[in-house]
Amino acid sequence: MFAIKRELKLNNIEISLMRGNAGFKRFVYNYGLELIQASWDFEGVKASDSKRIDAIKKVFTSWTMQKPEYAWMKLYSSTVYQSAFIDLKNAFARWRSCLGGFPKKKSKKKGDSFTVYKTAGIYLEKGKPALAFTNRVVIQAGKQITLPGLKQLRLKERIKFICSSQTFTVSRTADKWFVAFVLDAEKIPPIIHPIEKIGVDLGIKVLATCSDGFKYDMPVTTKTAKTKLGKLQWHSRNKVLGNKKLKIRASKNARKYYTRLAGHHARIANIRQDTTQKMTTDISRKAYIIRIEDLNVQGMIANHKLANAVSNNCFYEIRRQFIYKQAHYGTKVELVDRWYPSSKTCSKCGYVQDMNLSDRVFNCKRCTHSQDRDENASTNLENAPKEKVRLA
User: Fold this and answer.
1) CB atoms < 10 A from the CB of 60, how many?
2) What does the pLDDT look like over 285-324, one tens digit per residue?
3) Cross-strand pairs, 216
């Protein structure tokens, strides 16, 4: 499965249409969330979250949407509110499985998004009879895309090949709108890798150090962008984007500031994403077995001295990318036990000694071996004993 994400090139009318669809989805999601919480107060009702949401959906379709004050809902595609109930189901399923927190209400301040999809239809081709076909949309190569239930929209970056998809998710980051869709395609992974096994040590000073001697750094542009972000926040520290309870409307300057602030945050996120994606792809292409340490990221962030560096270097995101790229590049990701002393063990003689975090060079007290701390740790991760290693 592959996902393609492209930025949309919209005019003011199209932006209003996108915001309207996002507002419709947000209204339906919050509507369902309020009703399912209210349904828990009835003691005689025994039903799962999924059945409760299905019942709420029927009430919304047959009763709420028929009210005169909600006539505006008929201006938007029905798949928008149907996908909102699907998202609500998934949110409660994740909460019940302890994979996420309790679902919260959608807010306009945290970005807009909605999903549309193609239902079953009829495919017409010149000179041939009408054929019922699967619920997919054919996307032509070029800079235009037609979303189901919406209109034909322009793209800033062209699609290079003809493809098809069923579900399309439109989202907003700062003042930019994007469309993402999934392709049913399989990538044939490579059979041979230049390196059989490699150890990758994630660090604070250096983003990642490999046992083959190669190092990856987070770009300096990240630090520059964070400095600019801090200055922007400081100069506008007293600016408020309105207050509904006090009936204070947001000023135009406040809206401009928060849009600009979201753009700075998006730039920092894009730099990190670009760096980690390129790094994990490069390592996955050259090594078959990738060994990384099973780090306690949550505990490391709890330390205020390390929190900034750990969050900036995206430790868990790197691990997630390595894992999902196994199918793409035919790799095998292994996790080394977090209590394995990779930084305190000599990679030559195996002697274990205490080390402070400020010690950047490992000097063995037994065999006098001297090596960079991160390089020594990556070598130990590569050669870790089998009982300390498990599949990711």
Assistant:
1) 19
2) 999 999 999 988 888 888 888 888 888 888 999 999 999 9
3) 208
Give 246-257 pLDDT, tens digit per residue. Answer: 888 888 888 889
Tell which residue, 151, 182, 191, has the closest CA to residue 164.
Answer: 182
For the record, the structure tokens of 125 come out as 């081709």
Q: Tell me the C-alpha to C-alpha distance, in Å, between residue 27 and each of 14, 15, 21, 108.
A: 20, 18, 10, 10
CA distance 314 to 270: 12
**Residue in 65, 62, 44 with CA at minimum distance from that of residue 54:** 62
| DSSP secondary structure of 171-203 | EEETTEEEEEEEE-------S--SEEEEEEEE-
Nearest Cα neighbor of 269 from 216, 332, 226 is 226
Residue 138: band (very low, low, confident or very high) from pLDDT cuts 50, 70, 90: confident
Amino acid type, 152: Q
> Cα–Cα distances in Å, from 229 out to 110, 266, 268, 308, 332?
18, 11, 9, 15, 39
Q: What is the mean pLDDT of residues 197-208?
A: 91
Q: What is the pLDDT of residues 349-365, one digit of tens each?
A: 988 998 888 888 999 98
Which of 206-241 are b and which e, b meaning 16 or more Cβ less than 10 Å from the residue's Cβ?
bbbbbbbeebbebeeebeebbeebeeeeeeeeeeee
Rama region for 98: left / alpha / beta (φ>0; ψ in -120 to 50; rest) = left
CB 178 within 8 A of CB 5: yes
Number of H helices, E strands in the chain: 10, 18
d(CA 18, CA 30) in angstroms, rounded, equals 18
Helix (H) or strand (E) holding 152: strand 152-159
Whether residue 41 has pLDDT greater than 60 = yes
Q: How far is CA 3 from CA 137, 183, 284, in A?
A: 15, 6, 19
Across 30-52, average pLDDT: 88
Q: Is 18 left (phi over 0), alpha (psi -120 to 50) or beta?
A: alpha
